[in-house]
Amino acid sequence: MTEATEIEPNAEFEELLEFIRETRAFDFGGYKRPSLIRRISKRLQERRVGSFAEYQELLRNDPDEFVALFDTILINVTSFFRDEAAWDYVRDEVVPEILAANPSDLRVWSTGCATGEEAYTAAMVFGEALGEEEFSRRVKIYATDVDDSALAAGRHARYTAKDVAPVPPPLREKYFEASNSSFVFRQDLRRNVIFGRHDLIQDPPISRIDLLISRNTLMYFTTDTQERILRNFHFALRDGGFVFLGKSEALVARSPLFAAVDLKRRVFTKVSSRPIRAVMAPGRARRGRVSSRETDATVLDAALDAAPVAQVVIDRDGTVIHANAHARVLFDVNQQDVGRPIQDLPLSYRPTELRSRIESVYSEGHPVWVRGVELHRPDSTHALDIQVSPLVTPAGEVVGVAINATDVTRFNQLREEVSAAKRQLETAYEELQSTVEELETTNEELQSTNEELETTNEELQSTNEELETMNQELQSTNEELETVNDELHLRTEEIHEATAFVESVLESMRVAVIVVDRDLEVRAWNEGAYDLWGLRADEVLGHRLLSLDIGIPIPELRAPIGRILAGEEKVEVVLRALTRRGREVECHVDLTPLRNHSRDSVHGAILLMRAEQPAAS
Q1: 11-73 is a CATH 1.10.155 domain
Q2: Most CB contacts within 10 A, which of 29, 268, 301, 373?
Q3: In the prediction, which pLDDT does 284 show?
Q4: CA atoms within 13 Å, Cβ hemisphere of 261
Q5: How many CA atoms lie within 13 A of 322 on its CB side?
């Protein structure tokens, strides 16, 4: 595969995504295809693989490749107090409003948390607002991601001096403890930050959240997937709760589920939806009779919806009148299915036959249990205990049934693990007895070996005398080597001085300087190139220039570089480009040849780039 070849999505690509989902439970189906293809293709280029099918075979034979692939796809870009002005607004405006509206427990959810910097930033902000004691007592911060290695780093809360540089010094001294050359977030406050794996596409949302932080996470998903995630965010937030997004997220500004609090800083608040009870009983609302306990009913509906057990409620006519959040995710039931007869829904027969059991509840008047039901999902298999219970009024009239499904997958796994551990313990005991016998035999062999070693020691003494003679010869040789080493050291110092001189010249230049060899591999990349394109020298040195993903149309430089390598003395081109800050500029590129010391051959090309404001059209 060459850098000039762009891989298009095809059946092989979709098969690769399906293989990843089945083997590692990572579902990238909702991610934007162009970005996903570009990042996976980058991994194919690094492994010199020619097709998605070949790369799938590589993953099958080399499971360790999954780690590198996920590191390439899951871009863990984060930092403490990223976008400081936005965090200042959250600290000064949003947090005080949250504290005023909720005097009890506070819940914060940081999605796509990567290695935890933003979750710990939220901890410091709330810690300053509440004080350490109140923070420890009232605040829970849920930090979630799909990258297990990033979550592990977040749980350790150990960061380098460079990582904590954005933290103001007073906060750094207060919330971090120095450990060797690292900084560790304080253990007593770290307990309030709970890390866990959570897939925004597949897993149900965390509920009753006051502040939801999702900085530049949604932008990797398709529009449909973003809308589904936003609906989950809406459900997760308490009424009046806030969502804090990154600069690259724009869809939420057009969503009817949220209202902008500060659009520039991407802070939004939840728009409350109608209570569930009002949707389920429109006739009563039309008659204009409002219950004196409408608020209690709304709270009750919200509690039912947030119940940890999946529940579907059916009236006497067989119509579905309620399905809580857990049931909607588990059984693929949506709000449009509420009000439909259950016999028209797949739920009536999948994962198990429910219609006959509902009839049994009506006829016999007591709950019916169905245990050990397997529910097969594309990404997993769940074991469920399902209870169909009658709903009885105080007068004894059965007005419907409630279907409750409890996920016992983890319980079954633990039971199997206990049985397996017991069998392993018995096996280990038998192996221990056998090992004791082997140790006794080994002890006898060691005694015999000791006698042989004593004989060998005498032989070694004789050999040592011969080595002393050789040592004298080596000392003479070493003196000669020291002389050669001194000469090499002088040469090395000269090379270092020359290298430092060249690097100083490159770094002092105000324009971007890029040097490539005849294979178009980057040999030099100064600070000006980093400021313009956002890539550091250690990220590009040794890489093909045409493979870099930067804001300038790199393929258009192939022909000018070719002319320089062919012998032209200077070539100038002007290209439209985007800087690392997303600003559109005119990039003037001056290309000159890189010659050897005798200047009789061209070894590469030197590119001088300067960005100018584009002329008004």
Answers
A1: yes
A2: 268
A3: 36
A4: 20
A5: 24
Asked if residue 497 has pLDDT above 70, the reply is yes
Rounded CA separation 71/149 (Å): 9
Please determine, for residue 446, whether its predicted confidence score (pLDDT) is greater than 60: yes
Can you give the length of the chain in residues? 617
Q: b/e string for 524-547 if b means 16 or more Cβ within 10 A?
A: bbbbbbbebbebebeebeebbbbb
pLDDT confidence of residue 10 = 74
393 pLDDT more than 60: yes
**Do 509-612 and 277-283+293-407 fall under one CATH topology?**
yes
Fold that domain 509-612 belongs to in CATH: Beta-Lactamase (3.30.450)
Q: Which two tokens stand for residue 289?
A: 């009779």
pLDDT greater than 90 at residue 522:
yes
Rounded distance between C-alpha atoms, residue 514 and residue 316, angstroms: 76
Pair 515, 523: CB distance under 8 Å: yes
Give the β-pairing of 158-160 and 182-185.
antiparallel
Phi-psi region of 180 (alpha: psi -120 to 50; beta: other; left: phi over 0): left
The pairs formed by 220-228 with CB atoms below 8 angstroms and a separation of 24 or more are 220/31, 220/32, 220/35, 220/75, 221/30, 221/31, 221/32, 222/30, 222/31, 222/32, 222/33, 223/251, 224/30, 225/30, 225/31, 225/201, 226/251, 227/251, 227/255, 228/30, 228/201
Tokens of 588: 């003037």
Mean pLDDT within 143-170:
89
How confident is residue 476, by pLDDT bands cut at 50, 70 and 90?
confident
- Rounded CA gap, 475 and 481, in Å? 10
Q: Is the pTM of this model over 0.70?
A: no
Q: How far is CA 427 from CA 222, 420, 422, in A?
A: 52, 11, 9
Where do the structural domains in the chain lie, given as residue ranges? 11-73, 84-270, 277-283+293-407, 408-501, 509-612
pLDDT tens digits, residue range 327-347? Answer: 887 787 877 778 888 888 887
Q: What is the Cα–Cα distance from 199 to 585, expressed in whole angstroms?
A: 38
> Has residue 374 got a pLDDT over 80?
yes
CA-to-CA dists, residue 29 to 17, 21, 26, 33, 226, angstroms: 7, 9, 9, 9, 12
Quickly list DSSP for 325-348: HHHHHHHT--GGGTTSBGGGSGGG
Output the pLDDT for position 26. Answer: 65
Instruction: Write the DSSP symbol of residue 313.
Output: E
| Dist CA 607 CA 513 (whole Å) | 6
Strand partners, 490: none
**Given pLDDT bands bounded at 50, 70 and 90, which one contains residue 559?**
very high
Q: Is the pLDDT of residue 89 over 90?
A: yes
* pLDDT band with cut points at 50, 70 and 90 for residue 589: very high
Indicate the CATH number for domain 277-283+293-407: 3.30.450.20
Classify domain 84-270 at the CATH topology level: Rossmann fold (3.40.50)
> Residue 127's pLDDT band (boundaries 50, 70, 90)?
very high
Rounded distance between C-alpha atoms, residue 349 and residue 386, angstroms:
13
Q: Which long-range contacts (CB under 8 A, 24 or more apart) does 364-371 make?
A: 365/390, 365/398, 366/390
